[in-house]
Design goal:
It contains 15 helices and 17 strands. By secondary structure, it is α/β, with parallel strands linked by helices. It has two domains: 251 residues, tm_1862 like domain (pyruvate-formate lyase- activating enzyme), CATH 3.80.30.20; 54 residues, no CATH class. Strands 9-10-8-7-6-5-4-1-11 form a nine-stranded mixed β-sheet, with helices on both faces. The chain has a three-stranded antiparallel β-sheet with strand order 12-13-14, with no helix packed on it. The structure holds iron/sulfur cluster. GO terms for molecular function: 4 iron, 4 sulfur cluster binding; coproporphyrinogen oxidase activity; metal ion binding.
């Protein structure tokens, strides 16, 4: 049975310069029709893949908080109606600081949301403008204070580094500020210039000045050291949490477990098949209205792919990949399949091994993609 669901709300009021997520500008979109399609997809999914209980529900985007209060309530009612969950379920909403009103917080609370993931990115307001964000630092502070007042204690904030023009001092101040807000979870990602973004076009025209690679590594090392000294455990390559506040939903992905993906462009993994939904809103709505789902891709994951995924997803975690769990899942030892890769990466100082597990060294974290790629196409 599957116990995790990702729900996608693809609307944004502003488009950030670095963003390549599946999202659309909010104005003139068929939001109500979209929400009706999401309800139908939830209903049909539960009919086709029944489950008794959700351990995690994650609502991402786009920005779920782009919805009006009325739209938000329609959505929250749908989740409550179709997905079985209770107060023990980790129920997360992604939020933008300038859109998370007290009324929306109250609605979320009423319908069982208990975790917020807030897109902050940086506490340097000039840099915020440069990357196309429209919130301010005081909005972040206010929203976090209000969320806590309304009983949200499981709060995560996102920070970016390696931003054009960002100095080490800027990044240090952002981390300091994040820590001072006393949130139990921080995610921090390096900027990647993706095709079809404003930054990509600027870069092509030579108008975006990216930082040298050493700076990125320096920032990442600073991030790891500082958050460790502040009591945050680096439980995943880019995620840091106080004890007990790790994102259970994201651990579903890294532990290579199955989940539902509902909404335009969402990806799911059910009964050994990875599926992708149609991305464009109209296509998604039309498909769901007709068939109850909007899969445009279905890939049955082979045993070999599962084993490779177990390695390159699992190695993202601080604790790495557990040898006994690997053997239980595949009836073969990790050693019998990946001996060569593991030994080579150990020699290069990127992997470490003990009796129970294989995990990244500090250097391995800095060169994560290099490590992960060694486990692809091996079998
Ligand atoms: S980063 Fe988030 S808020 Fe910005 S455009 Fe992308 S999805 Fe929307």
């Amino acid at each position: 049975m599957i116990h995790a669901a990702y729900l996608h709300i693809p609307f944004c009021h502003h488009i950030c310069h670095y963003c390549d997520f599946n999202k659309v500008f909010f104005e003139n979109q068929p939001v109500e029709q979209y929400l009706a399609a999401v309800n139908k997809e939830m209903q049909k999914t539960m009919e086709n893949f029944p489950t008794d209980y959700f351990k995690t529900i994650f609502v991402g985007g786009g920005t779920p908080t782009a919805l009006t209060e009325e739209q938000l309530e329609v959505f929250l009612q749908g989740v409550k109606k179709y997905l079985p969950f209770d107060e023990e379920t980790e129920y997360t909403f992604e939020a933008n600081p300038n859109e998370l009103t007290v009324e929306k917080l109250q609605l979320m609370k009423k319908y069982g949301v208990n975790r917020l993931s807030i897109g902050v990115q940086t506490f340097n307001e000039e840099l915020l403008k440069k990357i196309g964000r429209v919130h301010t630092n005081s909005q972040v502070e206010q929203v976090i204070a209000q969320a806590k007042e309304h009983g949200f204690h499981n709060i995560s904030i996102d920070l970016m580094y390696n931003l054009p023009g960002q100095t080490m001092e800027d990044f240090k101040q952002s981390i300091e500020k994040a820590v001072s807000l006393n949130v139990p979870h921080i995610s921090s990602y390096s900027l990647i210039v993706e095709p079809k973004t404003v930054f990509y076009n600027l870069h092509r025209k030579g108008k975006l000045h990216l930082l040298p690679q050493e700076k990125e590594a320096e920032m990442y090392e600073y991030l790891m050291d500082t958050l460790a000294s502040e009591g945050y455990e680096q439980y995943e390559i880019s995620n840091f949490a106080k004890k007990g506040f790790e994102s259970k939903h994201n651990l579903t992905y890294w532990e290579n477990n199955e989940y539902f993906g509902i909404g335009a462009g969402a990806h799911g993994y059910m009964n050994e098949v990875r599926r992708a939904n149609a991305g464009p809103l109209k296509k998604y709505i039309h498909a769901v209205e007709e068939k109850g789902h909007a899969y445009i891709e279905e890939h049955k994951v082979t045993e070999a792919e599962k084993m490779e995924e177990e390695m390159f997803l699992g190695l993202r975690k601080g604790e790495g990949v557990n040898k006994a769990i690997f053997e239980t899942k595949f009836s073969r030892s990790m050693e019998s399949i990946f001996h060569e890769q593991i030994e080579d990466l150990k020699k290069r100082g990127l992997l470490e091994e003990d009796e129970q597990r294989v995990f990244l060294t500090r250097q391995g974290k800095l060169l994560g993609n290099e490590v992960f790629s060694q486990f692809i196409g091996v079998i």
